[in-house]
Design brief:
The chain has a single domain, classed as TIM Barrel, CATH 3.20.20.100. About 40% of the residues lie in helices and about 15% in strands. It has ten helices and ten strands. The protein has helices at about 25-40, 55-60, 85-95, 115-130, 145-155, 170-180, 200-210, 215-225, 235-240, 250-260; strands spanning about 5, 15, 20, 45, 70-75, 100-105, 135-140, 160-165, 185, 225-230. Strand 1 and strand 2 (about 15) form a beta hairpin. About 50% of the residues are buried. Bound molecules: adenosine-2'-5'-diphosphate.
Length: about 280
C-alpha cells in the first residue's frame, strides 16, 4: 500500500505520508527505512541536525526500492544560512547519504534575529536550478516570515513543515499556506509522545471505524490535506500509520478532533535543539 501523491507548486509531487526519523540514530534509521519501504512507505524525512543522514542514505540505498521512487527530504539548520553556505551544506548532506540529489530541501528554522533566511533562500533556488534539490521549502516559518521571503524573492516555498496535530492546529499558518499554494507538512503529527493518543474521545472514534487512536489522528491530517510524517521505529506502528486509506472520518468526527486543541492554538515555538 502506497500513500497518494500531493502536487507541489513546481510540478513535482510528494507522497502524503512519510517516515519521520527524529531521534533515530544511524543504525536504527537504516533498519526503520528498510522495514518502512517493505510496508509501502516511499518518503523519508531527515535533517542535517538529526545526525542520522548516513543511516538514512544506507537505508535508502539498500531498501530495494529504486532511488527515483523514494522521496527524500533533508533540512539545513542555522550554520548553513547566509553567504551561499547552503551549497557546501547540501553537498555534505548528499555525501553523507551517498545520493546525487534530494527531493526536498528545507530551511530548518527561520532564525529571524539573524536575518539570513532571505539570502539562504536565494541560494536554495540555485541548488534547485542545479538539480541538487528537486523542490525547496521551509520549516518552522510563521506567516510573517513567509511573507518576507516571498516579497523579497518572488519564490514561493513548495512546503512549510511545521509542528501540527489536533492539539496544535495552527489555523493561521494553514490559511496562509492555502492562499499561496504552499503545502502544509505536519511534524510531530501524533503529538510527539504527549498524552494526545490517550484521549478517550480518540479511542471512541477509532472504535467506530475499527482503527487505533493514532490512525484516527493520521487520518485527520490526511483529510485536512496535509503531508504527514509520523515517526515510529516499530514495524507494527509504522504499518498502522500508513493503513489509513480504507476509512473516512465523518464531518462530526473531524470537528471532535478539532476540539482537542483546547485553547492550545499556537503550541510552543520549536526551539533550535528540537525538531
Ligand atoms: P515508537 O517509535 O516507539 O512507535 P510523532 O510522530 O508525533 O513525533 O510521534 C512519535 C511518537 O509516537 C513516538 O513515541 C512513537 O513511538 C509513537 N508512535 C508512532 N506511531 C504510533 C502508533 N501508531 N501508535 C502509538 N504510538 C505511536
Amino acid at each position: 500500500m502506497n500513500a497518494p501523491l500531493i502536487a507541489l507548486n513546481n510540478g513535482t509531487a510528494i507522497p502524503q505520508i512519510g517516515l519521520g526519523t527524529w531521534p533515530l540514530d544511524d543504525d536504527q534509521v537504516e533498519q526503520a527505512i528498510i522495514t518502512a519501504a517493505e510496508l509501502g512507505y516511499r518518503h523519508v524525512d531527515t535533517a542535517a541536525k538529526y545526525g542520522n543522514e548516513t543511516g538514512v542514505g544506507r537505508g535508502i540505498r539498500s531498501c530495494g526500492v529504486p532511488r527515483e521512487e523514494m522521496f527524500v527530504t533533508t533540512k539545513l539548520d542555522g550554520g548553513y544560512q547566509g553567504d551561499d553556505r547552503a551549497i557546501a551544506g547540501l553537498d555534505a548532506c548528499l555525501e553523507r547519504m551517498g545520493l546525487d540529489y534530494v527531493d526536498l530541501l528545507l530551511i530548518h528554522w527561520p532564525l529571524p534575529q539573524r536575518d539570513l533566511f532571505v539570502s539562504t533562500w536565494r541560494t536554495f533556488e540555485k541548488l534547485h536550478e542545479q538539480g541538487k534539490a528537486r523542490a525547496i521549502g521551509v520549516s518552522n516559518f510563521k506567516p510573517d516570515h513567509l511573507k518576507t521571503l516571498m516579497a523579497q524573492t518572488g519564490i514561493v516555498p513548495a512546503v512549510n513543515q511545521i509542528q501540527l496535530s489536533p492539539r496544535i492546529p495552527r489555523l493561521d499558518h494553514r490559511v496562509f499556506h492555502g492562499q499561496h499554494g504552499i503545502v502544509t507538512e505536519a511534524y510531530s503529527p501524533l503529538g510527539a509522545g504527549s498524552d494526545l493518543l490517550e484521549n478517550p474521545s480518540l479511542r471512541q472514534i477509532g472504535q467506530e471505524y475499527g482503527k487505533t487512536p493514532a490512525q484516527v489522528v493520521v487520518r485527520w491530517h490526511v483529510q485536512n490535506g496535509f503531508v504527514v510524517i509520523p515517526k515510529s521505529k516499530n514495524s507494527e506502528r509504522m504499518a498502522q500509520n500508513l493503513d489509513v486509506f480504507d476509512f473516512e472520518l465523518s464531518r462530526n468526527d473531524l470537528l471532535a478532533l478539532d476540539l482537542l486543541s483546547a485553547g492550545n492554538e499556537h503550541g510552543v515555538d520549536a526551539d533550535v535543539d528540537g525538531h
